[in-house]
Amino acid sequence: MWDYHEYEEDEERPTDPVQEEVRELLRTFFNDRNDAVFFSRQVEVLHEHLYFHWITNRAIRDLIEEGEVRTETRKLAAGGSIKLLWHRSFRYYRRAATDVVKLVEEYSDPNIGAALGLHGELMVLEGFARNQFVLHGREVRDFNGISWDETKHDIDFVFAKDSIIYGVEVKNTLSYMNYDEFHIKIRLCQRLGLQPVFVVRMMPKHWIVELAREGGFALIIKYQLYPWTHRELAKRVAHTFGLPVDAPRALADGTMLRFVKWHRQNR
Asked: What's the pTM?
């Protein structure tokens, strides 16, 4: 559900000085698309090449408070809710809103969500195996006689090559992973003697730098990966919402090559 509900405001995050800049960009965005309905996560992802998700979300809230953008929260059949957004001049928005909710409900079905999570892991497993990394475990919280007991978390995979052992976490989601979980997974890897690797669709740049300082690597996929059997749904989500989703048969060679090059430089 994290891929369509909005962020809870984090009191620890300071006000970002670019928030006003984002607000003006979004003002133009909604004005130019005043006959369309969006949802919060969609707008955040559409602008992530420029701004962090949470900054875009704050700017959206500002425009709602100003009355420039209207909003409505609707319950979803699978549970949870979605926050819809449209320009204040769009009077007859209900049909467009219903169409948005219908497609979101289709791809947020629990069976689809489970398939996306498993598929992302299988794609990564195949990609690492294709490059001769040896699998030493899945859902690991105990390794070489050392246990992680601070939390109930585990790491998705443990791979090894050239005497270097990696703890690999996979997140096949549109949203960023939870920041607290990000730190927990790094500490878990360090506790177990693993170099942390995160395979994600997208991650904030300062998280990537932070990870590198801890000896880790972020393999950015850019796309949420759908199973080949769901390629028609992926096409509709990409076309209708403009979201970065795809249904390739395997991870692109260039994607794995980025990690292989980093591995060779650091072995």
From this structure: 0.91
